[in-house]
Amino acid sequence: GEVLKNLNKFYKRKEIQRLGAENGLDARLFHQAFISFRKYIMESSSVSADLHIILNDICCGFVLLGHVDDLFPFFLRHAKQIFPMLDCMDDLRKISDLRLPPNWYPDARAIQRKIIFHAGPTNSGKTYHAIQRFLSAKSGIYCGPLKLLAHEIFQKSNDANVPCDLVTGEERVYASEDARQAPHVACTIEMCSTNTPYEVAVIDEIQMIRDPARGWAWTRALLGLCAEEIHICGEPAAIDLVTELMYTTGEEVEVHNYKRLTPLTVLDYALESLDNLCPGDCIVCFSKNDIYSVSRQIEARGLECAVIYGSLPPGTKLEQAKKFNDPDDPCKILVATDAIGMGLNLCIRRIIFNSIVKPTVNEKGEKEIDSITTSQALQIAGRAGRFGSSFKHGEVTTMHRDDLVQLKEILSEAVPPVKAAGLHPTPEQIEMFAYHLPDATLSNLIDIFVSLSQVDGMYFVCNIDDFKFLADMIQHIPLNLRSRYVFCTAPLNRKEPFVCTTLLKFARQFSRNEPLTFDWLCRHTKWPLTAPKNIKELVHLEAVHDVFDLYLWLSYRFVDMFPDAVLVRDIQKKLDDIIQIGVCNITKLIRASQSAAAPGTAEVVSEDFPLSRTKKDARVVSDRHSAASTEALSIAVEAAGLRRAKNTRSSRLGSRQEDLKSYGRGSLANRLLREGLLTQEMLRQLESEWQDQHRNGRYGFGSKRDDQHHSKETGKKRK
Q1: Average pLDDT over residues 245-262
Q2: 169, 188 in Cβ contact below 8 A?
Q3: CATH superfamily of 101-257
Q4: Where in the chain is the domain with CATH 3.40.50.300?
Q5: C-beta separation of 532 from 541 below 8 A
Q6: Contacts of 237 (CB under 8 A, 6+ apart)
Q7: What confidence score (pLDDT) does residue 42 get?
Q8: In this predicted structure, which of 24-28, 60-64, 145-149, 169-173 has the lowest mean pLDDT?
Q9: Rounded-to-5 percentages of helix, strand, coil across the chain
Q10: pLDDT value at residue 685
């Protein structure tokens, strides 16, 4: 008891905590080290003789001989055994010092670059002016956020007789037949070279420098590209940050402001019914279920519609866009997610927001709903009335009347300025960490790096959750550090089990030094595949397409181990055609899925129902479990009541609640149907169950209030 009392006294001493901090033990590590040290002393039968003597002197009260502070050397020695990094903390801090990113790019610092910022909204011609300079230069590089954008510039350049190569994570296309490097290159921003000199560089969508996951790629391009002229395109909200960053490199920023080329009007009325659709309309949804529901309702009215959403292959997106844009095609309506916000040229007359809230995943990994930001709303709305299209005037509205006021507020607000630029640890930095901490896992190395990293106020360390997820997934597979790092940076959606399983198999076979052949991949994916018969099969085909993308991405990093890139690219094109067939028949697939589903099943894909509506009142649900039908309706009712997102003003919340109060029971059901929270089939099932329960003397929702009412009624009858 006396030993424990003195150990706790040691732990609480401010002087000891200060000494711990000086030796690299922050509050968290200090606590963990103390718990381990206390356990070692209390439970070990072989405490060292010198520590035993010190403890004895302290416990016996020999003030001249012992004091609790004397335990610190032994505590620190124990802490270094469980946290080996403490021995090399100074070295680790130097490696993870991210305060001067401009110094990482000596080639760029060796030249005086001219920085031109083309600032303006969507459809203002800002990128056009930058590309004109790119085309007139002797050499140039275009860096964009999407494969579709890189492919568009690649096509434009070669059509203008300016030889240009295409470089993405999964593809290299040379302008010349002999595969010689062209003086111009269009690439996805992660693939840009910071060592090759160019006359002109174009960095598109610079506001994405704030992106929590990918922002580091824009920071790297902005600070590191070796070009005499850097042309930056994006929102005016990024001007101040870019100017500050360039001040640290000694480079001035020349700003060119642009205004929208065609008028854009926010209408004073909502669409309210799909019967009011006109040619050139685009309905924007924020979930696949809404896409399926709306597209089916449109085709039920005898109208054809094109469908575009994020997980479709680029080829399918382009074909759907081409179908919608073709004046001779009967398809005049587009149903899309915010994937249309960039990368596709579309002839849209009117943008109609099916909803102004968007499913998101919070920092805890919980699903919730947030209002779309002003930046997102402007980006999407700006697609209407594109300059040079058949519609010279763009319009924007909402599907539902009560969303229109909120949309007008969102669009009228100023876009908040971009505050910080993303950074990401490099493979070299992680290798240096591994040298000092040879027994640490890659996931732990990343954690330690982030915890020790020091960043300037203009920067932040990007979210590394996806990296850590893959690192933990393949930790048991024997790989060297560099290969392990590459596998963990593979671009995949960790919510797709089939793709994650495939990466695991890739890594396992790679570790055995067995090449991943075309035949192996065909067996794994069950190629050849046929056109999908329902939505579930379409979703699987999209996952297989992502697997082929993953193979191609790895084939450029491990050529010998992924040798059949040409064959895989051929079958990927065939798969793209198969997916296109499925998308063209999407309403048939929806009908097949719903007829095959169990009675009362609401969803085609269990993607985001039910969703929590606010952070405060988050109703977190598992993706893999669906609620019973009666519960589902009560959840749906509550979800509608909590529709406003966390950033929505209290005035908006008040008006929403008033609207809901004024709605009758039938209109609430219609509203839930419109929002995709309920399907007709589910509603029929719920009504049937409610009627059955009512006939049996029970009320459908089983609330306490209903039970009390029921007991009162029963009492009256007895009297």
Answers
A1: 96
A2: yes
A3: P-loop containing nucleotide triphosphate hydrolases (3.40.50.300)
A4: 101-257, 264-412
A5: yes
A6: 207, 375, 415, 416, 417, 418
A7: 84
A8: 60-64
A9: 50, 10, 35
A10: 67
Q: Which letter does DSSP use for residue 429 in this model?
A: H
237, two tokens: 């909200």
Q: Pull the structure tokens for residue 124.
A: 């203002």
Supply the DSSP symbol for 541.
Answer: H
Q: Which of 198, 204, 255, 243 is nearest to 224 (CA)?
A: 198
Place of tokens 């030796």: 23
Q: Exposure of 715 by Cβ count < 10 A (0-12 exposed, 13-18 middle, 19+ buried)?
A: exposed
β-pair type (350-353, 281-284): parallel
Q: For residue 225, what are its two tokens? A: 């590209």
pLDDT, one tens digit per residue, over 651-678 is 433 433 333 333 333 455 655 555 555 5
**How confident is the model at residue 320, as a pLDDT?**
94
Dig out the tokens for 384 from the structure. Answer: 């209407």
Cis bond leading into 73, ω under 30°?
A: no
**Per residue in 149-171, pLDDT tens?**
999 999 999 999 999 999 999 99
Name the H helices within 401-559: 401-412, 427-436, 442-452, 465-473, 481-488, 497-511, 518-525, 535-555
* Cis amide linkage into residue 528, ω under 30° from 0: yes
Instruction: Convert the pLDDT of each residue in 34-61 to its tens digit.
Output: 888 888 888 877 777 778 778 877 777 6
189-211: per-residue pLDDT in tens?
Answer: 999 999 999 999 999 999 999 99
Tell me the pTM.
Answer: 0.77
Closest CA to 685 of 574, 602, 593: 602
283 forms beta bridges with 335, 352
**Owner of token pair 């659709």:** 277
Q: Look at the alpha carbons of 704, 709, 711, 712 in this order and tell me if their dihedral is positive or negative.
A: positive
Cα–Cα distance between 506 and 213 in angstroms, integer?
24
Of 395, 284, 399, the residue nearest 349 (C-alpha): 395
The CATH code that applies to domain 426-594 is: 1.20.58.1080
pLDDT above 90 as % of the chain: 57
Q: Which CATH number fits domain 264-412: 3.10.310.10, 3.40.190.10, 3.40.50.300, 1.10.10.10?
A: 3.40.50.300
What is the dihedral angle through the alpha carbons of 285, 290, 296, 298, rounded to the nearest 10 degrees?
-30
Main-chain phi, psi angles of 223, to 5 degrees: -85, -25
| Gap between the Cα atoms of 488 and 443, Å rounded | 10
- Position 499: which residue type? V
pLDDT band at 298 (very low <50, low <70, confident <90, very high): very high
If you ran DSSP here, which 8-state letter would residue 573 be given?
H
**Local structure of residue 171 (DSSP, 8 states):** -
Report the chain's mean pLDDT, rounded to a whole number: 83
Neighbours of 264 (CB within 10 A): 20
Could you tell me which of 126, 165, 153, 142 has the C-alpha nearest to residue 225?
142
- pLDDT tens digits, residue range 63-108? 545 677 888 888 888 888 877 777 787 888 888 899 999 999 999 9
Query: How far is Cα of residue 375 from the mean position of the Cα atoms in its chain?
Result: 16
Question: How far is CA 701 from its chain centroid?
Answer: 37
Backbone angles phi, psi at 90, to 5 degrees: -60, -45
CATH code linked to domain 1-86: 1.10.1740.140
Q: What single string gives the DSSP state of each residue in 351-409? A: EEES-SEEEEE-TTS-EEEEEPPHHHHHHHHTTBT-TTSS-SSEEEEESSHHHHHHHHH
Name the β-bridge partners of 119.
234, 257
Instruction: Determine the Cα–Cα distance for residues 369 and 611; give it in Å rounded to an integer.
Output: 7
Q: How far apart are CA 407 and CA 356, in angstroms?
A: 7
List alpha helices for 44-105, DSSP H.
49-59, 72-82, 89-95
